[in-house]
Amino acid sequence: MTPSPDDGEVRELSQSGIQFIATYVGSIPIKASLRDMRSTDLRLRVVKTAIHAVASKARADKDPEMAPIEEDSVAVLLVGEGQPLIKNVQVALNVSSKAISMSHADTKQPERNGGLVSRHQLSFISFAGAGDQPHQDLLGYIAKVKDDRRCHVVRLHDVRVSRVMMCVNKAMELNAAKTNQQMRPKEVPHASEPSTTRGGAEKKETGDENSEWSISREAFDSLSRQSWYHGLLTREDAERMLVYVGDFLVRQSSRIPGQVILSGRDGARVQHVLLMDENTGQVRTHDHQFQTVVDLVNYYYMHKQPIHSDDVLIELIRPIPRREIIPEA
Length: 329
What we know:
Layout: H1 7-14, E1 18-29, H2 40-62, E2 85-95, E3 99-104, E4 116-121, E5 125-130, E6 138-145, E7 148-156, H3 161-183, H4 217-224, E8 229-232, H5 235-241, E9 247-252, E10 260-266, E11 269-274, E12 283-284, E13 289-290, H6 293-302, E14 307-309, E15 312-314, E16 318-319
Parallel strand pairs: 8-9, 9-16
Antiparallel strand pairs: 1-2, 1-7, 2-3, 3-4, 5-6, 6-7, 9-10, 10-11, 12-13, 14-15
Helix pairs in contact: 1-3
């Protein structure tokens, strides 16, 4: 059993990071998003399949007669088409709570040492895992840069993969904790008579018309300046505006005074999520709390993370701007 990082290692991960010598074998596109891989088991199988594809390609370049290994028929469908991109360069792999980065560390090419090979912010890394036999010395992690989602594969030197995985998992935990603290609101004012609508996914927009949360003037001014904020808009009108998966907008509820709703298309359906807690008036999702609605939308949009709420999963891909009304002359 691999021990957890000690206090000194946690400090290193929070600061400059922990470094390992490795070979960056290469990468392969992943066409499945985290949303498509809802179970941890499937995510791990996809990483193992990607590791196998990259390692097999790297070995086949050296040994064309290499015997094939049986593939995972389900996971292979989620790995991108086309040939893996093979690098085979020796690197210093640095794991920190901010990023996983690789820099040249080849004794045969000292003039290149220290040069950056790749750097992936931890907030854009969705999953990491180790390979199976005969690839038990390989580690893969899935990272997304813009629209390019790939599994990057490294071979560790003189260190167990389980130890590096321990550091990666701890780094992701530290990153999530820091993000949560930065996004946590100081205080959100609320009225004494909240709506009786259940928090989270909007089941039905009903409520006491005298029930209302108060939003600070500064927060409201900031919200009203956002192109994706439509003000007072009915559920039906919102659904007509959201055409493609990932389309989203934010609106004021037409039936619950003071409630702010995020509407987004998830496949064939449009989902509606109440953004203000029914009891406290706090701006939140099931995963995080925020100081303002603008903070919430910016967080999920910039980090390309789906919003989870009960059985609802909404990806914020394409903000739908409100239609500006031009007054007649």
